[in-house]
Amino acid sequence: MTVRDRALVPHCALLAAVLIFSACAAFAQNWHPHHFGPPWDAPVASSQTFHIAGATLQVDFAPGPLDLTRAQYLAWVRRAATAVATYYGRFPVPRDRILIRPVPGADGVLSGATWGNVGGFPAFHFMRVGQHTTADQLMRDWTMTHELVHTAFPNQRSEHHWIEEGIAVYVEPVARVQAGFLAPEKIWRDMMRDMPKGNPQPGDEGLDRTHTWGRTYWGGAQFCLLADVMIREKTHNREGLVDALRGILAAGGAINRNWPLRKVFRVGDRATGTHVLERLYRRMADKPAPVDLAALWKKLGVVRNGNGVRFDNSAPEADIRIAITRTPPWGRIHPEP
């Protein structure tokens, strides 16, 4: 199927599981395995590499027509890599492969999927892009960044898919603000609009038990937003979710590893000196836990203003909102020329 909504983009973390591949690929990519086998075995018409923070990213193009140049697509991947490396302080895996498949007659970035441990690469991404995609569509795209974020978290069992997608949904726009590609007003407006999609509906259970797209993507994003705010409250804004995620990555927790979720959260909490992730997980895993988003926006100083938002910097936790999107002390990390 054609995918244009963040809430529907799949993370197909696959470690040699044929059944997972079949279901995930058929749903997420409109890919036909009988054509080439798995997507990483598809033919390659051209290939380029670039380096960022010591990592090597290989960008391959499958055969097919594209209106834009290969250089423009490479710039698109480089921007996404800049955002992810800036957020994490480095690129999450030492080697990454991105395969871009043109779709004749279409336009826009249609879908993306990510696997770990494929063909000697710790991470592999399969991106479907329309032949008539414009430069503006690439500039505004979030999908490539979303998929690269997946590389920075250990592979999870299916019942924990919400945390993989929730992190990608939440971190992607924050990382793009930190890298200078988005304005903070835009992402807080988008969160105010979209976070309610993650609220439990009648009959829903906890995040481990309800696997609708709303609960998986936006329920997971709610978990991440709450964790970010709570960690900053506990540490007087010295640490945040980003520090927990960097700690997980520093301990080896990337997409090419299979870690139990409780271990992941234990490592993340150790990095911030709190117990926020473990306690929040116990609260939200097995039973519905509605989030009072209105109260959250109020204390962060996010105020609806027509079709957008304005910021109230006198709000009790406005400093937390500002810190979440602040560029890290090391500045923006760009690919090598």
Description:
- This protein folds into two domains: 147 residues, no CATH class; 143 residues, no CATH class.
- The two termini are 36 Å apart.
- The protein contains 13 helices and seven strands.
- By secondary structure, it is α/β, with parallel strands linked by helices.
- Helix 3 crosses helix 5.
- The strands form two sheets. It has a five-stranded mixed sheet, sandwiched between helices. A two-stranded antiparallel ribbon has the order 6-7.
> Averaged pLDDT, please?
91
How far the N terminus sits from the C terminus, by CA atoms, comes to 36 Å
Largest sheet at a glance? 5 strands, mixed
Cα gyration radius (Å) = 19 Å
Uncertain spans:
1-10, 12-34
Number of helices: 13
What is the total number of structural domains?
2
> How much strand?
15-25%
Strand element count? 7
The gross shape turns out to be: globular
How much helix, percentage-wise, in residues? 40-55%
User: How are helices and strands ordered from N to C?
Assistant: HHEEHEEEHHHHHHHHHEEH
The secondary-structure class comes to: alpha/beta
